[in-house]
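Q: Hi! Curious about what Putative antitermination protein looks like structurally. Here's the sequence.
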Amino acid sequence: MLNRRQLRIKVMQAVFSFQRQRPDDLKDLEKFVNSSMTQSYTLFLYMVQLLVKIHEVAVDKHTKKQQRISSSVEHNPSRHLIDNRILLKLRESQALKDALQQRNLNPWHLDSKYVENLYHKIQESKTFVVYAMDEEPSLKKDLKFLTYIYEDIIAPSDELLDYLEDVNITWTDDYPLINTTVIQFLRKVKPSKDVTLPPLFKDDDDGKFTLSLFRKTILNIDELAGRIEHKTPNWDKDRIAQIDLVLIMMAQAEFLYFPQIPVKVTLNEYLEISKDYSTPKSANFINGILDNLLKEFENNDQLNKIGRGLL
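A: Let's find out. The predicted structure is below.
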């Protein structure tokens, strides 16, 4: 679920916080990093359970409509949404129920208005009208419809994003990745198989990498910061974006203390992160500083990369 770039962003946030507070004890910041990672999974569960709750609303509305129907006036309402094979599978999924119970989560229970609002937007969409009129439903069509409502109605909802940000501020950064993960997850749901939830980490070493990167950066922060000052003697320190300084320090830590990570991967990752989290000119600035630092490390034989193609 969480990729290395997302994990680097979580470390960046913790290092940035350290720079501002300079606490003597790192335990709270390490807890923040760990919590931020586990909260990403909580967001995933929130978004999947949101689909379940929308389905529950659909079933409830359909039942009430049937009770009001007069055969001479109305036709039976479409069952396409409540019979959606993927939604039915999610609603009965024991794996999803267990994951929520283990974390003591009951999302949307007290915030049903968001579920209701999204349900009505779905009902009003042209895609739903076409879907509801289809006389030959199929799993493929169910998935296509579900993908549409998620990508075009649920994920872009400003009201929903504002709510999630109030629940957990770090979810704003996780939101795009988690939405992509949900779509990938839905494509793997099969009516004939038990639902399998994705793991938090794509690789078993990712959690260790995250905490190690944080510790290596913090424990060597004065040395890492000092090198930046030597490379920017004509720059007023206040003119350099704090995020840029953090990213350059983290990149240095990867160059020097993570022999398995190729230099090109590190460079690319931090340049891409800077485009989303810093100024428009940051990528060029960071690239220039890191290029100079790399030359210095190579001349001093400080790079200790293991394997081919790591430099």
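A: A fun detail: The chain has a mean pLDDT of 91.
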